[in-house]
Amino acid sequence: DIQMTQSPSSVSASVGDRVTITCRASQGISSWLAWYQQKPGKAPKLLIYAASSLQSGVPSRFSGSGSGTDFTLTISSLQPEDFATYYCQQANSFPRDSGFGPGTKVDIK
Amino acid sequence: EVQLVESGGGLVQPGGSLRLSCAASGFTFSSYWMSWVRQAPGKGLEWVANIKQDGSEKYYVDSVKGRFTISRDNAKNSLYLQMNSLRAEDTAVYYCARDLGRRPLGYYGMDVWGQGTTVTVSS
After folding, report:
1. Which of A11, A91, B19, B35 has a 20 to 30 Å separation from A73 between CA atoms?
2. Which are the contacts of A109, defined by CB distance < 8 A and separation ≥ 6?
3. Whole-angstrom distance, CA of residue A101 vs CA of residue B8
4. For A36-45, what is each residue's pLDDT tens digit?
């Protein structure tokens, strides 16, 4: 099974900061990766698909990059509504397995 | 409006059963893979199961194989999760999600989610 790790597990940042979250797969997964944002008590929201494509309606300050084993989610200028937990999800063996990373919590500094 | 609404959660004793439902509206339900994802209290997301558009393929995370069954009724625009032999570690919020699957550019993700239904397994 492919294992996903995320770093950091949490980050404290201020409004306007640039925030970068890394997701690493235990083996190559090409571009079979998505990113989600989840706020407390709410369902996850799709931000990025195919590793680097911005989901419709998602602000352009969010961007994704990477391929193979190393991926990055970047928030170029953190806004108050961006304080949340972010998850990556791999689908290299879709539909048999679609595991999530452990999450990265972004909170207020 | 594209929408998924889960129901059927509740408190159940260890070893018991529960059937979750997910009602879809605003899109052609029969055209999409569908998934169940759960989140234990204070924990991260865990993919549980998915089902192909016509119900001919079903896949499960190892921890629920043999205990949970995913199904769908395209005529009723509904997705189900039958959960048997429930354990304390199955306690979670269960979400249904529309899964866009793999396409030429890559994995397109789960783009529509329900609000979740809470399952608590406790004596």
Report:
1. B35
2. A12, A13, A14, A17
3. 27
4. 999 999 999 9
